[in-house]
Every structure is written in C-alpha cells, then in structure tokens.
Amino acid sequence: MEVRSMIAGATYSYDPVSKELVSYDTVSSVQHKVGYIQSRRLGRGMFWEASGDRNDSSSLIAASFTALGEIDATLNLLSYPNSRYSTIAAGMPGE
Fold this sequence. Notes:
By secondary structure, the chain is an alpha+beta fold.
C-alpha cells in the first residue's frame, strides 16, 4: 500500500506482513520538494543516486528540471586530491 504523507512530504509503502517499510520519491513528491526549495529561496536540490530513474513521464530528474525551470551549469570547483579513489583525486576526468 502506497502512502503519501503531506506532513513529511514523502511517499512510502509499508507491508504489514513482512514489516517492511520503503520510502521513495514520486513525481509528485519531487514537485513538492522543488516547491519547498523555491519557497525558501534555497540554492538547488540534488539527487543522491539516479541510476534507477525512469526515461518516461515518471522520471524524477525530468520532474525536477521541469519544476525548477533550469539547471545550474556552474562548474564544480571541489577538489579532493588526497582521496583514496583515483577518479575523485583526479577531479572526475571526463565529466
């Protein structure tokens, strides 16, 4: 059963048999979050992980882009030369 909590601004599903709770975003919850970002005049939002995003009308990234109206193309100036991950230490070449 899917539940949308207006208080938390989140969507979740709970299976009482397995006692499993799963929270996730939907197009509607992303639009709600973007509205919050804009109402508070915050900089932008981000996605922690997006490899499972859809490529249809249920795409969360597309919903965020549409709600924001633009994408910030400012170069990332973060530097972690001492990272144990070679790609991060090298500044994510190819990105």
